[in-house]
Specification:
Rossmann fold; binds adenosine-5'-triphosphate; ATP-binding; alpha/beta; ATP hydrolysis activity; ATP binding; ABC-type oligopeptide transporter activity; 4-stranded antiparallel beta sheet; 63% helix; 10 strands
Length: 647
């Protein structure tokens, strides 16, 4: 928590206070907000702007070249039209204020007036063209940026997804696409305002060289203030992104169906709400501090602008009084100063929002770069067509972060293909980690994984994944129909009913589908209308059907029967054995040692090390860890219940 308080909180139970030292002392572990990773100076922001602007232009270019060209041309044209119109105003004023009869002066002013009208017409047409092209461009830019973001995020290594720094970047970069979209209209207004300001500045310089520095002095304060406020906002966002995310997570937990039973039975609702409030209040206090700073910065800038404006008009008056400037020129100068400062104001405002958006687009660009660096490599050597075995040779692996011991420690073992291999061991012994390495999800820190004599580290990862079907402990329950939930096992091949039916039969999941109101077409997402929920065991059978549909050469099943009743468990093991009979290799992780009896080979792991290997009978006879665990489980069935003993 950002804030700790000893003050009595209304609604905090005494037990909660005793348990956690009050709710605000109960550290959830993920809500730190002190790791700002960007330091931005005013100068570096100004220097970075053109780079970021060109990045958004590149996105526009990729999204729709034609529209990008139209927008650019129209905005440059509009800026030039304003310059011409300013010159025409100067000419009209010069004619009207000059000597001679009024009728003659009016007649002489007509061409300039006509020019002004024509320029206004052209300006209106260009504006319409720009509006239309911008409207077309904006959604495309957002789509292109989002698509790229999602595509790259889906292609990175699992270790990147699990890395908190990369995840933070994923979080911040997700705003990049909508920022890129917003940058398009901002960028058009910046281009337009910049050109019209340059035009006004040019006219002013022609009228009198002293006027330009005055215009610049008038504008610098608001530019400084706007950019400073934007920088603070961005820095705040980065420093607090974890906090914001945690707040959102708490809000989501309160309404998600999976948490709903515990929230109601264990009364977790008020507890989560209090944390949510405390986090929101901490964030509010920080935002109030920023608002105070923004108000102060704005006020300083306004004073500075006021003084500069007074100095500008005083200079103009002085020049007039001294006879150094004609009245018509002074009139044009006033209009040019007004146009210039208005354009400047627009420019500053738009540069401000452009800058803020550009910073988020900068995050998106950074994500693109880092995701490309951490992408699953493409290409590599081919794996043998029909390997005899996969061999782990002195494999060690430690999860990144602050792990106290390796998850796998110098493991050497063989997985003969076409057989059932069981991995056995207590919780946390490294079984799941081993199969994740086998599937190529992680690479060993040391040692090799050999498919016959081909090192998996050099293999084409896409081809390796092709060979593997996996029913993980926490396999995804996709919120789609039952049919898609099976066929998603191999989404690259056309979905056919025969193939789905075959997989369902192989997995023995037929009766699960019979119970569904619309069979395979039942939507398995309770949150949607017409959606249906399966029990844990029913899901598990559908998961196995998915793996059967994939028909990889190696089937990895991690705790396949954890949620199954005794009859279903027997059935599922029968099915798994049958899959092995078709030539598939089955790598089975289970705590039900009775089910391991039919395995061809058992590897026993303990604290990341391989401690035993052999057939179930050999291991039972050897009296080692496997035999001990097996006897423990068997005794649970043979031991007398205490009541009977007492009786
Ligand atoms: N994604 C992860 N990041 C960091 N550490 C992890 C991760 N997954 C597992 N670990 C750690 O690695 C060790 C081995 O975990 P693993 O999941 O491989 O064990 P397991 O034998 O499959 O356990 P179980 O029987 O409970 O499923 C454990 O100490 C665990 O805390």
């Amino acid at each position: 928590m950002g804030k700790q308080s000893d003050a009595k909180q209304p609604g905090v139970s005494e037990s909660e206070r005793l348990l956690f030292g009050g709710p605000l002392r109960y550290d959830m572990g993920w809500n730190s907000h002190s790791d700002a990773f960007l330091e931005l100076g005013f100068r570096s922001m100004v220097v970075r702007l053109p780079v970021l602007l060109s990045a958004s232009m590149r996105l526009a270019w990729q999204a729709d070249r034609q529209a990008a060209r139209t927008v650019l041309a129209a905005e440059v044209g509009r800026g030039l039209a304003q310059a011409v119109s300013l010159l025409a105003v100067n000419s009209v004023l010069g004619r009207l204020i000059g000597g001679g009869p009024l009728e003659d002066r009016l007649r002489e002013a007509v061409p300039a007036l006509v020019t002004m009208g024509a320029v206004m017409l052209v300006g209106a047409l260009l504006r319409a063209a720009s509006t239309y092209a911008t409207g077309r461009l904006e959604p495309k830019v957002e789509r292109v940026a989002t698509e790229r973001y999602l595509e790259l995020a889906a292609a990175v290594e699992l270790s990147a997804i699990e890395d908190h720094a990369f995840h933070k970047l994923l979080d911040t970069a997700q705003y990049g696409a909508s920022s890129a979209r917003r940058m398009i209209p901002s960028a058009t207004r910046v281009i337009n305002a910049a050109i019209s300001m340059i035009a006004a500045a040019g006219v002013l310089t022609v009228l009198h060289p002293a006027l330009l520095p005055l215009l610049v002095t008038m504008t610098i304060p608001s530019a400084w203030s706007a950019l400073t406020i934007a920088r603070r906002h961005y820095e705040w966002y980065h420093a607090w992104v974890q906090h914001v995310r945690a707040g959102r997570l708490l809000g989501a937990l309160l309404i998600e169906p999976e948490a709903a039973p515990e929230i109601r039975v264990h009364g977790v609702g008020p507890f989560l709400l209090r944390h949510f409030r405390s986090m929101a209040e901490t964030a509010e206090a920080e935002q109030a501090r920023l608002a105070r700073l923004a108000a102060r910065t704005g006020l300083i800038a306004a004073c500075w602008t006021g003084l500069a404006t007074a100095a500008t008009y005083a200079t103009l008056g002085g020049l007039l009084l001294a006879g150094a400037m004609a009245l018509s020129v002074a009139g044009t100068a006033v209009i040019a100063i007004r146009t210039g400062s208005q354009s400047l104001e627009t420019l500053v405002m738009e540069v401000n929002s452009l800058h803020e958006d550009a910073l988020f687009v900068g995050d998106l660009q950074r994500l693109y770069r880092e995701a490309a660096e951490r992408a699953i490599p493409v290409g590599g050597v081919a794996l043998p067509d029909d390997p005899r075995e996969i061999r782990f040779e002195n494999v060690s692996f430690t999860y990144p972060g602050d792990a106290t011991r390796p998850a796998l420690d110098d493991v050497t073992l063989t997985l003969p293909l076409g057989k059932i291999v069981a991995l056995v061991g207590e919780n946390g012994s490294g079984k799941t980690t081993l199969v994740k390495l086998l599937a190529g999800l992680y690479a060993p820190d040391r040692g090799r994984i050999l498919w016959d004599d081909v090192d998996a580290a050099r293999a084409d990862r896409r081809l390796l994944a092709e060979r593997v079907a996996m029913v993980a402990q926490d396999f995804k329950r996709w919120p789609f129909t039952a049919r898609v939930n099976v066929a998603v096992g191999r989404s690259s091949v056309p979905l056919t009913d025969e193939r789905v039916a075959g997989a369902v039969a192989e997995a023995g999941a037929g009766d699960v589908l019979e119970d569904l109101p619309r069979g395979l077409d039942t939507l398995l997402a309770r949150n949607f209308s017409g959606g249906h929920e399966l029990s844990g065991g029913q899901w598990q059978r559908l998961g196995i059907a998915r793996a059967a549909y994939r028909s990889g050469h190696i089937l990895i099943v991690d705790e396949p029967t954890a949620a199954l009743d005794a009859r279903a468990e027997l059935e599922v093991f029968e099915k798994i054995r049958a899959l092995a009979g078709t030539g598939q290799t089955v790598v089975l992780i289970t705590h039900r040692l009775a089910s391991v009896r039919h395995a061809d080979l058992v590897h026993v792991l303990e604290q990341g090390r391989l401690v035993e290997s052999g057939t179930p009978d050999e291991l039972l006879a050897s009296g080692g860890v496997y035999a001990e665990l097996y006897t423990l489980q068997a005794e649970q069935f043979t031991a007398k219940v205490p009541a009977e003993e007492a009786g």
